[in-house]
Amino acid sequence: MIRNVSLSNISSYSPATTVVFGPLKRINLVYGLNGSGKSTIGNFLQSRDLPAFRNCSLDEDSGELDICVYNQSFIEKNFHGGSQPGVFTLNQGNMALRI
């Protein structure tokens, strides 16, 4: 489990200060205004080994992490690949439609 996430010198996070999120729980919800760094947190969790994240770190328990980030990358990978059928609402106007 991830205990803390530390971010510095990436996107909206200043190089002069390290921002630490934690202590974290097994499941965490990150929300905020546009431009506040939510996507940066998700991108770091998904791609920690990228050079852009060299000033960022995780404080984690030993063991394998199963990290799932629901962001734009997740949506594109899982819902825009053509294998996921669309969701629709059955109503009077489209009752005769067939899949």
TrEMBL record:
Highest taxon of the lineage: Bacteria
Transmembrane regions: none
Pfam family, one: AAA_13
InterPro entries cross-referenced by the UniProt entry: CR006_AAA (IPR026866), P-loop_NTPase (IPR027417)
Domain Protein CR006 P-loop, chain residue ranges per copy: 22-93
Name of this protein: AAA family ATPase
Organism of derivation: Pseudomonas helleri
Highest classification ranks of the organism: Bacteria, Pseudomonadati, Pseudomonadota, Gammaproteobacteria, Pseudomonadales
